[in-house]
Batch of 4 targets.
Target 1
Amino acid sequence: MWDNAPLHEVVLDMIIKHHPDPLEAQKYRIPKIWRGDLDSEFGKDLLSCNPNGKLAFVITRIVIDPRSGKDISAGRLFSGTIRSGTEVFLNNARQRQRIQNVYIYNGIKPEIIDSIPAGNVLAISGVLGNAGETVTLEPEEAFEELKHIFEPVITKAIQPKSQGDLPKLVEVLRKVSREDPSIKIEINEETGENLMSGMGELHLEIIENRIITEKGVEVKTSPPIVVYREAITKKSPEVEGKSPNKHNKVYFVVEPLAPQIVQAVKEGKIPSGRFRKKDEQLIAFLREECGWDAKPATQVKAIYNGNLFMDITRGQVHIGEIIELVLDMFEDVMRQGPLAREPCMGVKVMLTDCTLHEDAIHRGPAQMYPAVRDGIRGAMMQAGPMMFEPLQVTRIEAPHDYMGEVSKLVTSKRGQLLDMLQEGDQTIVIAKLPVAEMIGWSSDLRSATTGRGVSSLVDQSFEKLPYELQDKVRNSIVQRKGLTAGQLGA
């Protein structure tokens, strides 16, 4: 096969024959991946892949130059001509940087070139941006950020085998998080703990192997930890949060967020972040799709990790001075919920009222942070809080003879069989499995099918952890994190 049909020639011939060139592709791709005005000069340059138009380069991957060891940003040039020495603007990072070198790929080897026109895949050095960054000459409407449809649900603590390599490991982890946005890296420089989160055990093993082989750092990792979610099941009564000096009081009500809003955030139909001004896109969606009235739609102040915050207070003179502090703690609680300090999902938090000290010095961060944090957590604890576990819909392929073994394996892992199809001599099983039960899944599947079964991830969701497992899982997380009842406020 290698002599008669070398793989690189076969794949290259397929690409040339079946893929449209950029002149054709950008006509229908740009409206899907760029939300700006297509009738503007910039929009027309993008649609026509104009080499003489405004510069538009999108970074899709950060790679390491094998010769210099420096980061280079690879991606596609949608418009304009890119040249070494050009000062450019990074639209997501909101900063200016200068291109040092421009590279064209000769196989996997980057070759320096003076300039290159639109329609090409290339790389640039000197520009440090994350994957998904839009590089232009002047501020422009950015391309949609690269999004991964699955969230990281497995975490490992990672540390160097030699403590002298710790600074090098921290640097490597930062590079890895830039190279692969689907990996979430959390570096705690105070405790020295480094956490690496991915979409599965195999995903983390691949990254771990890359760190060892490509980056040359010997590491050791903890057993995989499953990342759960905290959510609420009903509306809470109004709960008071009081500042340490007793001069400030804030009142909160929480309730589950409507599923269509959660889905809209996930799909990018409505923006996330803090809203200092009225966001017309958000207001229009809440009114037209969710049936909200005009006033509540304008009271949304933030959407963070699929959770929503509203300020529904009336006539509060000093609210503008403390709202940023309130939002800081809203985000903090949504990162670390009241049950076991796991991330929250689908929570709607409403600031209903507040009593504030007249003097600004008595309502600073040291006073407002504890009041807001305790108020939101207290409200959540009275709203039927529950742990939600990650589940993955998995496609399993194996010969017919092994279907009994595959079904038995899925059932033994608290899994559900969703569908079973036949394709030739293979049977395809679609199953939904809890991630907590999938540790060691690859080897278990190989054992059950004598190496002839393979699986792939189809979808991911979070669902209520069975009632009988709620306390057990919560207690194990609390114990692992070393949390006390006082810290949890329970």
Target 2
Amino acid sequence: MNFSEERAQSWRADLRSAKKAKERTDIPRVHMPELDPEYRSHTRVEEVNLGLTPEMAMLEAQRCIDCAKPTCMDGCPVSIYIPKFVKQIEIGDFLGAAKTLKETSALPAVCGRVCPQEKQCEAQCIHTKMKKEAVAIGHLERFAADFERESGNISIPEVATPNGIKIAVVGSGPAGLSFAGDMAKMGYDVTVFEALHEIGGVLKYGIPEFRLPNAIVDVEIENLRSMGVQFITNCIIGKTITIEELKEEGFRGVFVASGAGLPRFMNIKGENLVGVMSSNEYLTRVNLMDAANPESDTPVLPGKNVAVIGGGNTAMDSVRTARRLGAERAMIVYRRSEEEMPARIEEVKHAKEEGIEFMTLRNPVKYIGNEYGRVTHMVLQVMELGEPDASGRRSPVEVPGKTELLEVDEVVVSVGVSPNPLIPQSVAGLEVTKWGTVVVNNDTMQTAIPMIFAGGDIVRGGATVILAMGDGRKAAAAMDEWIKANN
């Protein structure tokens, strides 16, 4: 169905008269179809969530009451015009909805899958004020993006006349891609430099295919290529080429989006044993280096008793990957209770359905190995919850004298990451915090070096895909203003 200009002027009135607000809010929220838990726990390449049918999407879109002041948009870091794309879905203009999404989002198919909508746009939905489930904005975003891709009628956002000004982007994760897309729309000559052999950053190496297929990411990247964005892989800014050399080659601005790929460990005895690794290493090797294949140059030994330390989304990705690699017992070990887990509720639900054990209020204090230096056991300190900490979550405290011995043959540590230190160390005059994050003006994302802007995990120290994308958009708008003011 085409969304004509005449129709565009009258759709609000038509939809309001067709179905009253009370009728809309009484419609139950649709639930995303999923692969069978037993089946999916043995396949790494098939996506768990199956997407909405057109009928399901149109029904869910009817739940939107078209608020005069759409508070859902207040929760969107990239300012998607949510009511417009939702109403376009309601009348069957699926391609129009996808086009609306692309006006502000470089990665709608990605965000529709991995964005924590329940804490952002959906948390601001008027339905929640009425004690009802929010409109499934994330599901609808995914539907529109998938429909466009599957139809073959992929729209390319309008790009301004080229201005000949060269801009460099360091890193091809969500912040870098979002920034690149916005700068390309404004007519800049954008080149993205990626240290790895694949474009996509954390979207490729950090998120398993069962949650975000690489093919989906590739389509979004091709969309950026069609807008004129250039990509250079296997290029480490600060090593292969320096920021100063980029400047000499005529680049007028640099956006640093090199992420937070430095893993953290707990500094406890036995962390150097074979079989103990970070979630960064584990997921990167499996997702990008074919490590699940025994013939791989860098195989991961499939553990039978695998413990993943942590309670975030990366921990869930790791433990669910371990299950798919053949773990007979795959466990989450988390020092707080399940209620304090930062992972998405959906990820916890999926993990439980797939047979993952949750050992909460437990914290590893020592790893034990055999004569070959391979981990065989871990000692867990039993915890209890004390008073809330600065984040509002109750702090875990030790239960004196109470420990447990757990048999393991593989441990994946997922307790946080630190920013990649290469750029801060290689650029004189760049301000960094004691945590290694780059200091920026929060309104513009500009660093102490005027031509260098930064965003995403290199600034935040670890955040969601959509927050990184929001940084990219903010930086693009600010860099455009700065370049025009200093032209």
Target 3
Amino acid sequence: MEQERVWREQIRETLFVPEDLPKLDVQVHGQFSPESGVVAERVSYGTQFGMRIPAIVYRPEAASQKQCPALIVVNGHGGDKYSWYSFYTGVLYARAGMVVLTYDPTGEGERNRDRKSGTRAHDKVEGPDELARRLSGLMMTDVMQAVSYLSQRSEVDSTRIAAAGYSMGSFVLGICGAIETRLHACVLVGGGNLDGEDEYWDNSKPMCQGIPYQSLGFLGDRGAALYAMHASRGPTLVFNGVQDTVVNMPDTGEPFFADLRVRTVALKGDEVDIFETGFVPDVSHRPFFVTRPVALWLERHMGFPFCSEADIRAMGETHIGTWAAAGGVEMDPGYATEEREAGTLALGEGVPGFERSDLNVYSDAEWEGLKDRLTHESWRRQAKAVQIST
């Protein structure tokens, strides 16, 4: 509808998402096989200010021309392509016939000045508010660049591209999925409870969430407006642990979403593709897109070439804490507890762990030579220079 078109334009303008997306300039840096039947490719492509995004793309070895759906993983705070859930998602869904893209968000992994993960470097608070809005726009641009990249791959069906966001990633995708109409489906986990004025999201991390969310006040009922735009794009699933205190889920659980759904339907005018919800009792913050219920939802909406609903229901599961300990897989200490990520029962068995070097896109020498086109600090300098000049 016309109102949604206007809102999309206003969001892009407010958050400095470029009208013409940056040139991709795709570069391929090699590949390896994490297990039989799965290929992992090391690639990079462009984003704002000529910066580069390093990414790992997991695909089935037997991919057919234009037959594969695709999935983009949008990480939470401190997460990147090295995170256990990123590569677990890559292997799990590549087995099913999807092409899965995982990348380093700004300030993490190979976009960190020390090439480290879990730093939360982008959280450094620095004014004016415009810089925070530009940061949010960068994160959205990165998602949109992933869509552009996947769309031009020969084995990907460009009408079947989905994205899954966890925690901060659910917030980024909650906005980006409302304006990126090329996405067919979105999954928001560890969040998606887009609330009102001076509530959780307005008062969350200011640079990547609080200030950008406040700036969208022109939408009125922000949650309902964003989800109405999602529904015009395609299906959306919001899936959470009932006891997720990280994102205030105990206060914004099923009754909150039921009311939000009513408001969204009233705003859109019909119930077509209005978001669906799922809740798991007695657990907290987890990347639920690696679990059976979300895989079933994705199969229904995306269609897996090599895996049916019956196959998903018959699969075994992996307790992530046990798997990580046995394989020496690193987990974020803040989430490596049973009620959080360590307690996740992930779909599938035998997913391999990785050495960090396996998931490096660049050699040490290449990375040193490209730091000015990778790190968050370099982007921030350029964003501030543009801000001053305008």
Target 4
Amino acid sequence: MSPRGRVCFYSEYVYPLLGRREIEFAGGAEALVARLARGLVARDYEVSIVTCDYGQAARELIDGVVVWRAFRPHVGPPVLRFFHPRLSRAALGLMRADAEVYYVCGAGMPAGLTCDVARLRRAGFVSAAASDYDIVPGLPARGGPLDRWWYRRALRAADAVLAQTEFQRHWFREAFGLESEVLPNVVDLPEQVLDAGQDGLVLWLGTYKAIKRPEWFVELARALPACRFVMAGVVPPPPLTQEVWEAARAAARECPNLEVRGFQTDAELQALRRRTSLVVHTSPVEGFSNVMLEAWAAGLPTVSAVDPDGLVEREGVGEVATDPAALVASVRRLMADPALRRAAGARARRHAEARHAPGVVLDVLCRVLDRVIDSVRRRRGGAG
């Protein structure tokens, strides 16, 4: 039977989430791409991904997804490596994928290059936001002038633009004059729903970067010595700085109720969540935080510095704290009331089931992809 359509994702750092290797760098956008790719395979699409070279074969088949190897990160002289191997090998991988629709989650060079390859091949292109930074006027946090120019050009040429929230949808219209559709982030729903009312941990998950404001969590642990706090996440690899990671470890040595861990395998992360009563998220800007979403799917409430589309307060899945004092007050209140945590966790799980379950999200995505594929096949005058 012919596939429903041929879809290719370009995601430079997704391979650790596909190849099941203990490689310690992959973020929320990569987790989203991995889930969407596997979900589309189950919906009868032919799916491929172009990703960085982590030492894997040039072409692999993983969980039904064809994985094309591109370039090795940070290899080659500065400036020159932008053209080769980065552009040259990424473009080659995208051409080899031979897709009807190319999909990029995020801004910058990947979106621009993928759009150009799609146009060269008379294929469709879908641009999906990965963060609120992708829709901020002027794109101040999105690379250099070339990256920003290329991304704007790709947005204007896209067959579909996808937002994560109504907030992003509004700003695509205001900042870029573009109409977009909301594709909620997808999350796997664990069979076991956790008991947020247990006498457990307060958990922080993320990458040890200054932009994530982990120091808020450190100060929280100092302010609430009767509670147990655990930080865990990715330590940025070179050439990125590890200053934030080292500062967190130094703080833990002086704070007996704070434990600081590095990268966690899936099994270690699941074991950690089973001991957790509350998840804290301190990053000031997100698209839709996977850390929060995975907590809700497990039945855990959150205290966060962000509230996507106001749903945290509206749905009662946790609390919002936009400064350190408010963070301390919210965590103190929730940790003193097991029934309050348990009720918020139950509402969080119901919200994840209703809005972010794989079946719900894939229904939306498939409608978009089918529309683009139909348009591509009409342009090509056949079945693609």
